[in-house]
Amino acid sequence: MKQFDMFGNDKPKEETEYTSKIKAPTYKPKNKQPHILELVDNSKAKRLVRKINESNVTEEEKVLLKFAAQRHNRFNYSKVADYYAHASKEMQELMEQSALVVIDFEKAYLHGYIKLAQELANQYLDTHEE
């Protein structure tokens, strides 16, 4: 089986500039928790939802399009991290489950993120094998 390199680097291991060792950055929270409305810019999603509501598509189509519109929300992850540092334990757990913050390997596995990454890697290998 061909070795999968997520960065498209086909050089032999000794020639690569990058390491596969990943060290999570250490985060030092700010003293003040940001207001929750500062964590996300949802202006594009709101514009899309407004257009969807004004459209003549079916109600079922509107539901689908509104779900898709949420993909345009832009999170400010430094503020999300600050918020997380000051949040209740319950909120922290929900933020971890929503992948709003960097989570440890065991939690990533429990929430299915490792499985997703492996499935994507396998799919890539299936389509790019020689």
Q: What does this protein structure show overall?
A:
This protein has six helices and two strands, in the order βααβαααα. By secondary structure, it is mainly alpha-helical. A two-stranded antiparallel ribbon has the order 1-2. Helix 1 runs antiparallel to helix 2. The chain starts with 39 loop residues before the first strand and ends with a helix.
Which helices and strands occur, and which strands form pairs?
Blueprint: E1 40-41, H1 43-54, H2 59-69, E2 74-75, H3 77-86, H4 89-97, H5 105-110, H6 113-128
Antiparallel strand pairs: 1-2
Helix pairs in contact: 1-2
Distance between the termini: 9 Å
Give the strand content: under 5%
Find the count of extended strands (DSSP E, 2+ residues): 2
Mean pLDDT: 80
Q: Would you list the SSEs in sequence order as H and E?
A: EHHEHHHH
For the structure shown, list the relevant keywords.
about 130 residues; mainly alpha; two-stranded antiparallel sheet; 2 strands
Give a brief description.
This protein is mainly alpha-helical and 130 residues long. Helices cover 49% and strands 3% of the residues. The protein has a domain at 31-86.
